[in-house]
């Protein structure tokens, strides 16, 4: 579970950064439809990242994930 939390944190961070950078790029270029799509990905990235933090904190890094 610890590895899953780390991966979720990384995916959430990537999704948030890409959504912000690409969303604002499209906004400054004047493409409103794509701006909405990419900026809507930012809260999703925060939720995935927060879930990753919670999974990482509540799991034991020493234990093995496989039985």
Please tag this protein with its features.
67 residues; mainly alpha; 82% helix
Write a short abstract of this structure:
It contains two helices and no strands.
- As residue ranges, the low-confidence spans are none
Q: Tell me the number of structural domains.
A: 1
Label the overall shape.
rod-shaped
On the 0-100 scale, what is the average pLDDT?
89
Strand content: under 5%
If you had to describe this structure to a student in words, what would you say it looks like?
The chain has 67 residues and is mainly alpha-helical. It has one domain (2-58). It is 82% helix and 0% strand. The chain is built from two helices and no strands. Helix 1 (2-29) runs antiparallel to helix 2. The chain is rod-shaped, with a radius of gyration of 15 Å. The protein starts with a helix and ends in a 9-residue tail after the last helix. The model has no long low-confidence stretch (mean pLDDT 89).
Summarize the helices and strands and which ones pair or pack.
Blueprint: H1 2-29, H2 32-58
Helix pairs in contact: 1-2
